[in-house]
Amino acid sequence: MTLKQLSIGRQQWGDDKGKLVGSVTFVDSRIETSIILSEEIAAKMLDLLAGQLIDNAKEISQSLSGIANYNLKAIEGSTE
Questions:
Q1: Which end of the chain is less crowded, N or C, counting CB atoms within 10 A of the terminal residue's CB?
Q2: Cross-strand bridge partners of residue 32
Q3: Sign, Cα dihedral of 42, 48, 49, 50
């Protein structure tokens, strides 16, 4: 089975408002299986992923900064 989707977020309404909720979906050639994650399991998964998410966000930020700087130089160069 292959991971299709992992979703973790905070419940926005109802009795569980503010609690972590999530789901995970796996798929293969014949079947798709989804599992609802409890708050405890969602929190554990988020803790496991947090470091990598932060590293990825830093890489994306650096990449976007480089692109923005390149584009700014191109714009400034074209107005001279």
A1: C
A2: 27
A3: positive
Give just the sign of the alpha carbon dihedral 61, 63, 68, 73.
positive
Report the alpha-carbon distance of residue 45 to residue 24 in Å, rounded: 11
Structural contact between residues 25 and 32, judged by C-beta atoms closer than 8 angstroms: yes
Q: What is the pLDDT of residues 32-66, one digit of tens each?
A: 999 999 999 999 988 988 889 899 999 999 888 88
* pTM (two decimals): 0.59
Which pairs with CB-CB distance under 8 Å and at least 24 residues apart come from 18-22? 20/46
Q: How far apart are CA 21 and CA 45, in angstroms?
A: 11
